[in-house]
Amino acid sequence: MSYKIPEPSAATETVALDFGPLSTEASASLLDDPQEWSAFGRPVGPTATHETEPPPDASLTWDSHVVLHGMHCAACALTIEDALRSVPGVERAEVSAATQRARVVWKPSQVLPSEWIAAVERAGYRAFPARDAFAREIRKRESRRALWRWLVAGLCMMQVMMYAWPAYSSKPGDLTQEMETLLRWASWVLSLPVVLFACGPFFSNALRDIRARRVSMDLPVALGMLITFVVSTMGTFDPSGPFGREVFFDSLTMFVFFLLSGRLLEMRLRDRTAGALEAVMNRLPDSVERRCADGSWERVATRRLQSGDTVRVLPGEAFPADGEIVAGSTHADEALLTGESTPVLRHVGDAVAAGSYNLDAVVQVRVRAVGEGTQFAQIVALMESASLQKPRLAQLADRIARPFLIAVLLAAGLAAAWWWPTDPSHAMMVAVAVLIVTCPCALSLATPVAMLTAAGTLARSGVLVRNLQGLEALAAVDTLVFDKTGTLTRDGMAVRNLQAGVGVDADEALALAGLLARQSVHPASRAVARAADNDAAAQAQAARWQIVQVQERAGFGLIAVVRDSLQPERLRQFRLGSVRHTGALEQGASALQQVVLTEEDGQGQPRELMRFGLSEDLRAEAPAVVAQLRAAGIRVLLLSGDRDAAVQRIAAQTGIDVAVGDCTPQDKLSRLQSEQAAGRHVAMCGDGLNDGPVLAGAHVSFAFGRAVPLAQSRSDFVVLGDHLELVAQTLLLARRTLRIVRQNLCWAAAYNAVSVPLAVVGWMPAWLAGLGMALSSLLVVLNAARLARAMPLTMIDAPACPAVQPAVALTGAI
To answer: What is the pTM of this model?
Structure first.
């Protein structure tokens, strides 16, 4: 099956994604315009580009995110996943019941968005673009409706309880038959708004499931409500019949009120935390003022910006793209991107980042990078990915959700059959209690609610969770391996001394070294580049050289082929890096890191041109962090590619007992694997540049976001700020998270183990079953919410870590 991608029309240039006044089919068809795909997704694959308006290339695969409405449980998530995966052209679908979001990987050559969105709707749910303003409006509307249902249920419950109280408190003969009948009829009338309005979502979801021949957590609850109302209604209309001995309108209204109370509180907690993911994703303005060719300003959609455009950003607005200020000056809040809460001053010529806030004045910005080319887009992608991942414990709960629900229905039927010969009315209420009390909401929420809350807490502190399962692995870690440069030491080095080779022009060698060093982002390379930039004589020589080819070997250095403008016909090969990489001679032990520039002669032998001695500053908080880790029972190692003397000096200053220098990336990986072979669970903390293999090989890994593009990092956690103590905080928070997950699972299992027998034997009335179900789910959510309050770490003696603004930095926790 193949589809022709429609050509974008002029009309679509100004169409906003709005599902409000249009029909579902018409609104979804707007998404078939390729110009709109970037509003809620990104192209993936080797041919994907970072353009704002991606070309309508049918060979691309798209990764899109949508917000879902109408789902409440793990069974709903599995149903939507099955519906999406059944559509030809959908390669992958992931749905999170906790965040109510879905990730869809699809091929435009086989399917269009309107078709897989229609598949979601046929399954009985609704899907909206994750970055669409209408999705936020739907969230608010659902919250208002839930509040109204709760208020109606509460008001009616109080009135029904008032009418039911005389039947419980009166003595035989106190109530006449006429008065008892009148009270039953009054209770029936007051129960109608509860059944017809407050119970609406339960009944509609159950009917949808019956039509689709599946079960979800709303089905047993809706059956319990319906059975209670029907039995009580029959008792009201026929007091002398088999169900006329007692009515249960009070139980019905009470457990509906309790269930709605639990769901309303869960929704509020989810909106406060999971809804913040949308706040991050929608942090960019919907539109921005762009300068026209005639100098006037026009307001255009942010996704229509292109590199080279000049935009005007007002105070309080977020910068729509990466760029450079060309007029004005202001302070920018870059907390989300750097972890630093202190605003930074930006003048003309300074760079500004998409997603950071303009705080003071109107500025004009020339756009440099848009869309997926910005760091903000990479952060959002990490947040989206983490919020949809399912830890192993959550996957287990999802797998048992459907079989458990079927068992619930069978248990309710058997309980009713057992009690029916004795008392049909009591038998039906026993079945209702079983249906309600055994609903596995708490079980399905136990793991994801804790994991995602922890991820949100980490994001507020400046740590992005790339892999949600990393929290499980981190909780079991007993060994932590640090890299040195850029991790235990500051991400900055300085050239302390330099020495030219025999017969070598020092200015010429320094210029060459600076030229090569600018091709790398390693801290040592940046230090050499700064030294060359600060030397006027070397700068004068820089224009003489032109790089023809350059290659960087992780952990070793650079190899470059250079053309000399004085001898353009001759190509020369240079190496800049460690002594081992360049082939230079060792010069004895030194605490300074050695970087050497060599040139290969005609016989392939290296000729040393210049040697640089570099040193770096130890992070002030490093000794306290290492002490904190050791106090927590973590074995700390230091593996570095720097000279062993420098590594031992850092190890002595930080209190690390096991330190190894002169390590290649393969040496680090071998040492890591030997620790794992000994039965240890190892975490790796590096700068993400030359530590790729060992970061990927560890059980769990950290990388500092400033040192490496986020999209290229292989780590499970990315530390956006410059605070080493975040590593210790994350590890302790992971341990606390797993404890809370276990508590939630134990509570959910214990609650069912105690409640089910009580319901089966008839000792748990329906209203108490409803209260128990609501409280069990609420307890799980509130227990996990403790993870959002603060990091589980006594502040170590180091500068406090500024927190990212919580309103805009959550990763989708609930």
So the answer is: 0.58
